[in-house]
Design a protein that fits this description.
alpha/beta; Rossmann fold; 2 domains; 7 strands
Length: about 290
Amino acid sequence: MANDTLEAKRDRLLTVLRDMKRAAIAFSGGIDSTVVAQAAFLALGEHAVAVTADSPSVPRAEVADAQDLAKRIGIRHLLVKTDEFADPDYVRNDGTRCYHCKDELYSRIETLLPELGVETICSGANLDDQGDYRPGLMAAAEHRVRHPLQEAGFRKSDVRALAQHWGLPTWDKPASPCLSSRLAPGVQATTERTARIEQAEAFLKRQGLRDVRVRLHEGELARIEFPAEEVARFAQPEIREKIVDELKRLGFRYVTLDMQGFRSGSLNELVSLELRTKYSKGIPHEPRTHS
């Protein structure tokens, strides 16, 4: 399977989805879920639907992009309001926040399955997600969510190649996890903080950065990550002062540049070994049924 051609993997992905008959895709507008949505539309047509979470933890630009992509693909699309910030376990942000977020999303989608006329929920997880700290995969297992990309043998490089082959504009899009993922474990998740982070990252992107994260640590300390080769340029006095002034205006007390550069999932280093071990296994607490 690992040495299969892209065409063989594409055909296997279409077969996996076609065999589902009807499916709802948890659709963020990122490259992985976009490829699954495109494949689902090709395999199932009107029997496929893309469902996007509409939450303060999702940048408004990402919601708009998801809507545009769904139109481009032609797939049915639904925005679903989620309320993870009402969950004390989510707000506590002890390292398991992503589990509670995905549990909320999949629960909301489950309640809509009869109305949507589908039985199966699909995610955009690929094989490269299996070895990482992904509490959301445990929630997916509990809700019996299927992962078509994993089932068809796709790694991230395969996903990007197929997206480019299909002419999807997201083929080289940087990952864009939810805004709450920027909060260090132990820093409570609030809508005020996610809004601040969204504004700070939008500002930095306007300065010419493509891959950027504003990580929020205790004491309202902003730790900015972007590619290491850009650090010297953005440490220049005139640019550095502009960044500091804007982020302090937004409400951050301290502003730092991470000299290691951009690292996806760097805050996972602060999660306890116990939680990392438990949630990396992706073993569900209790299987759920779609009713």
